[in-house]
Amino acid sequence: MLAQLSFSALDWLPIMLGVALAYIVFGIAGFGTALVAGPVLIHFMPLSRIIPLLVLLDFVAAFGNLLPSRRDVVRGELLRLLPCMALGCTLGVVFLLHLKSDLLLLLMGVFVTAYAIYGLAIKVRPAHLSRLWALPIGTLGGLFGALFGSGGFLYALYLSARLGSKEQARATQVALISCSTVVRLSLFLIAGVYADSSLLILAACLLPVMFIGSWLGRRLTLKLSREAFIRLVTWLVLASGLALIGRYLSA
Predict the structure, then answer these.
(1) How many CB atoms lie within 10 A of CB 124?
(2) Burial, 129: exposed, middle or buried (Cβ in 10 Å; 0-12, 13-18, 19+)?
(3) What confidence tens digit (pLDDT) does each residue in 100-154 have?
(4) How far is CA 103 from the centre of its chain?
């Protein structure tokens, strides 16, 4: 099976390290795999191949995270975000498969970086966010998730402002990411992306690395307070934005 993959022995080391780090982050925050692994994987394969690969791995990881935390899911918030997320995912898959997205990648990176700097600079955060924000947040999260594999930061910011419990915010976000992966996986299947057997083989090879990273991330999460969790999410958002800008400049 490995003979079908065009990677050298030296290529596998950064690929596996990038994926492991991505799923440590995923285990902690429930998002960020493409933003962490993407800048590494982009040196070995195109974005149109990276996103379907990570969707396969996210599908397994998200449901693994969801099972132990499903009782903390806030269904009202989940149901508000899901229809908009599905719409955004559909648009994102269409754009990913048919359009060049370099400029949108840069604009997204600038927006994310600016928002994270703002969030880290201010000390007083809004205690509550209107439920009407579910419409743009859900749509943009689905769009960016399908297009760049990086919509989870929007869900994290929205749910952190809406819910008072770290456990509820994280569990609801994981449930939303699980639904998002199902939608994206279905759309990629319909588009015939997974007809490429080498992509499925690569995902199978990286599954053990994904499991180890997710396990380490979940262990680290248990030691964080809600304030530390929100601040960590914001730092991850900043790193994500800078990674997107770096990916654009390197391209």
Answers:
(1) 5
(2) middle
(3) 667 767 777 787 787 778 777 765 555 567 788 888 888 988 888 877 777 777 8
(4) 20
> CA-CA distance, 154 to 192, in Å (whole number)?
28
| Amino acid in position 39 | P
In the chain, the amino acid numbered 6 is S
Helix-then-strand count for the chain, H and E: 10, 0
Q: Is 138 helix (H, G, I), strand (E, B) or coil?
A: helix
**212 band by pLDDT with thresholds 50, 70 and 90:** very high
Assign 85 to helix, strand or coil.
Answer: helix
State the Cα–Cα distance between residues 251 and 244, nearest whole angstrom.
11
Q: How much is the mean pLDDT over the chain? A: 79
What is the pTM (predicted TM-score) of this model?
0.72
User: What region does 105 belong to: left with phi over 0, alpha with psi -120 to 50, or beta?
Assistant: alpha
| Contacts of residue 221, Cβ cutoff 8 Å, sequence gap at least 6 | 27, 28, 170, 229
Cα separations in angstroms, 43 against 11, 39, 146, 188: 10, 7, 20, 22
Give the H/E segment covering residue 245. helix 226-250
The DSSP code for 179 is H
| Burial of 183: CB neighbours in 10 Å, binned 0-12, 13-18, 19+ | buried
The strand ranges marked E within 117-228 are none
Query: What phi and psi, each to the nearest 5 degrees, are found at residue 30?
Result: 85, 10
| Most confidently modeled range among 41-50, 134-143, 224-233 | 134-143
Q: What is the pLDDT of residues 175-184, one digit of tens each?
A: 888 888 888 8
CA distance 91 to 99: 11
